[in-house]
Amino acid sequence: MLRVLLGGLSIVLLFPSVLFFGLVWVIDRADWNNEQVLFVKRHEPSTQVVVQSRNAQFATLSTSYRTVQLTPMLDLWQRIEPVDTATFDTTGWQRVPQ
C-alpha cells in the first residue's frame, strides 16, 4: 500500500515539472531568422549586422527581435554578438540600402 502511495505521489510531483520543461523546450526551439541586413563589413562581406526575428509558434507569445553581428567561423558556424545600433561604430562598414 505504501508503495502505491509513494508511486502516486511521485507522479503528482513529477508531472508539473515535465510539463513546465516541455513547454520551455517547445518555446525555445524556434530558430532566429534574418529579417534585414543593416551593415556589411567592407573587406569581409560575409560579416554582417542583421535584424533577426523569432516566432515561437506558441499562441500566447509574440515575435521577438534582436540586432546582432554575424561573423562566420570556419564556414561551419557563425559567431553571434549583440549590437546596439545607437552606439555602433560604422567605420569599416557599409550600410545596406533598404
Describe the SSE topology:
Blueprint: H1 2-28, E1 33-41, E2 48-54, E3 64-73, E4 77-82, E5 93-95
Antiparallel strand pairs: 1-2, 1-5, 2-3, 3-4
The total tally of domains equals: 2
Strand line-up in the sheet with most strands: 4-3-2-1-5
> C-alpha Rg, in Å?
22 Å
Q: Separation of termini?
A: 71 Å
Name the descriptors:
98 residues; alpha+beta; 5-stranded antiparallel sheet; elongated
Molecular structure report:
The chain is α+β, with helices and mostly antiparallel strands and 98 residues long. The protein has two domains: 1-30; 31-98, no CATH class. It has one helix and five strands; from the N terminus they run H-E-E-E-E-E. It has a five-stranded antiparallel beta sheet, with no helix packed on it. The radius of gyration is 22 Å and the shape is elongated.
Give a nutshell description of this structure.
The protein is of the alpha+beta class and 98 residues long. It is built from one helix and five strands.
